[in-house]
Amino acid sequence: QQRDKLRQYQKRISLNLERERALARELLRDGKKEKAMLLLKKKRYQEQLLDKTENQISNLERMVQDIEFTQIEMKVIEGLKIGNECLNKMHQVMSIEEVERIMGETQDAVEYQRQIDEILAGSLTEEDEDAILEELNAITQEQMELPEVPSEPLPEKIPEASPVKNRPKPELVAAS
């Protein structure tokens, strides 16, 4: 509100400056140099007031920005405070000993389940595992027997034994 009032004050002073300048010209034409000088001094004083008003507006705008930023900071601090309180409550509910106990119980349950799975699946012994790995290695090491590649050069033209629809012409096959 104060900024708006200062802006209105600036407009009023600006209008007065223009009027007084025009009046000073008129007084000079009429030969009233002393009155014109007095009017120009008044105009100069009002210009200084206009500059001061501009500085005050600038200060007000800076203050408004500082207030807005401080409000944002306060919201951040409030959020941090709430988050810290929440963490403290969670720490009260869950102690390190409790977490270690739960982790131990979980590990025991996983081990127990593994033992049950071994019993139900009729788990293999270590010797069986070794035999399976050896067999897997033997299979992967076997070389597949491939047919031999002919040593004779391939014929240049393909003999046309039977007409086939949509069969590419030999010239097109050779070109591609």
Automatic annotation (TrEMBL):
GO annotation, cellular component aspect: ESCRT III complex; multivesicular body
Protein name in the entry: Charged multivesicular body protein 6
Pfam families assigned: Snf7 (PF03357)
Source organism: Pelecanus crispus (Dalmatian pelican)
Annotated compartments: Endosome membrane
Keywords: Coiled coil, Endosome, Membrane, Protein transport, Transport
Coiled coil regions in record: 43-70
Region annotated Disordered, chain positions: 141-176
Family note: Belongs to the SNF7 family.
